[in-house]
Design a protein that fits this description.
CATH topology of the largest domain: TIM Barrel
Shape: globular
Number of strands: 18
Helix content: 25-40%
CATH class of the largest domain: Alpha Beta
Radius of gyration: 23 Å
Length: 389
């Protein structure tokens, strides 16, 4: 299967959790060798989701080697060379931080280092195999995680416009903290019925914004749940409702296709700026003050940002909103990529934002001609009169 997917240009990613079930064939050995997190009191259980589990101790180098060698045998040696590292905080059923003890000390003292060591577990193993350009999706990070190929996503967030606004702030802060590879669950993770018009609106607005994030990724546990199939492993979980781009009605589907095509056309631009991030530490998604530090109003703007050096993105993060005010920083002239209208920097303008439009501006005479990008985007139907039903 792995080879077949590779032949289609698809890399299979495997989800890894840091928890070890008491029923696992590896539990006794890991317990005996001190590879599991300890508890100061009570039973050594960190989570009770799908069984009684405790996390491997990522601060213990021998435990890291054990986990990597197990993953190597079962996945890496079969051609899987990218991993989805979940539960990286790590997540506990009860957050009594003083109760958990790691190889390097108590959770209260050094607990924040766990996601860093979790990422290091897989980075070091993959590096030892000679792999280059290592990157793994991970649910949490700490200072320095970027050294270990950490592509961070913001976790199991709620499906709401409030949550979307929070993610915008999170993404900008993550980039300024030195971790440029960042993504979010488009549409949120918890909740959202694909047949609900209100959720469809949220999904569209989030999808439009996701087009201009470092990594574009649709993910979520939709409602209502599907019947359970099987009783072991991942099959023990109920599956959420459909969550593909065609799952939210024909209007949403056409808009999603439009922005997927835009994302595809922007690949050279995105790749160039991600190379800048890799070499110079310059985040592709950054607050306006990063590029316009001489503009006092740019420091005050929290609802728009630069995507690379040339694109200003002003997402719609509220329901039933079809226009908004956008501040265009001074020091350069701007063009509305949808209308072609040109504006002097250093002013606020009101722009239309119909359901298929995210306010978007590019520097005039910039390295990217966004009109040519739009010309490459083909859609079988007109989007000018799309309405939410």
């Amino acid at each position: 299967m792995v080879d077949e997917l590779k032949g289609m240009g698809i890399e299979l990613m495997v989800s890894i959790w840091p928890t070890v079930d008491y029923k696992s064939e590896n539990f006794s050995e890991m317990l005996e060798k001190g590879y599991l997190i300890r508890t100061e009191r009570g039973i050594r259980i960190g989570m009770d989701f799908q069984g009684n589990t405790i996390h491997y101790d990522a601060t213990n180098p021998d435990a890291r080697n054990f986990v990597w060698n197990t993953a190597k045998k079962n996945y890496y040696d079969k051609g899987i060379n990218i991993f989805w590292l979940d539960e990286a905080e790590p997540e506990y059923a009860v957050y009594d931080f003083d109760n958990y003890r790691y190889h390097l000390g108590s959770n209260s003292q050094i607990g924040n280092i766990y996601p860093l060591m979790y990422a290091k577990t897989f980075y070091d193993g993959m590096d030892s195999e000679g792999q280059k350009n290592i990157i793994n999706l991970i649910r949490c990070a700490w200072a320095g995680s970027q050294r270990y190929g950490a592509l961070v996503w913001s976790g199991d967030i709620h499906s709401s416009f409030l949550s979307m606004r929070n993610q915008l702030a999170a993404g900008l802060n993550m980039g300024m903290a030195g971790i440029p590879w960042w993504t979010t669950d488009i549409g949120g993770f918890h909740g959202g019925n694909p047949d609900d018009p209100e959720f469809r609106e949220l999904l569209i607005r989030w999808f439009e914004w996701g087009t201009f994030c470092p990594v574009m990724r649709l993910h979520g546990d939709r409602e209502p749940k599907k019947p359970q199939f099987g009783i072991t492993g991942g099959a023990g979980c109920l599956s959420g409702a459909d969550n593909e781009v065609w799952s939210f009605g024909p209007e949403a589907y056409e808009i999603c296709k439009k922005y997927l095509n835009i994302r595809e056309a922007l690949k050279p631009y995105i790749k160039r700026h991600m190379e800048h991030a890799h070499i110079l530490g310059r985040p592709i998604m950054r607050p306006l003050f990063y590029d316009f530090n001489y503009d006092n109003l740019a420091w005050e703007c929290e609802d728009a940002y630069m995507f690379g050096s040339d694109l200003l993105v002003a997402p719609i993060t509220s329901a039933k909103t079809f226009e908004r005010i956008v501040y265009l920083p001074k020091g350069t002239d701007w063009k509305n990529v949808w209308t072609g209208g040109e504006y002097k920097g250093g002013q606020q303008i009101k722009v239309d934002a119909e359901i298929d439009v995210i306010p978007l501006f590019c520097r005039i005479n910039s390295e990217i001609d966004f009109r040519k990008v739009l010309e490459t985007v083909s859609s079988p139907t007109s989007l000018k009169n799309v309405t939410m039903k």
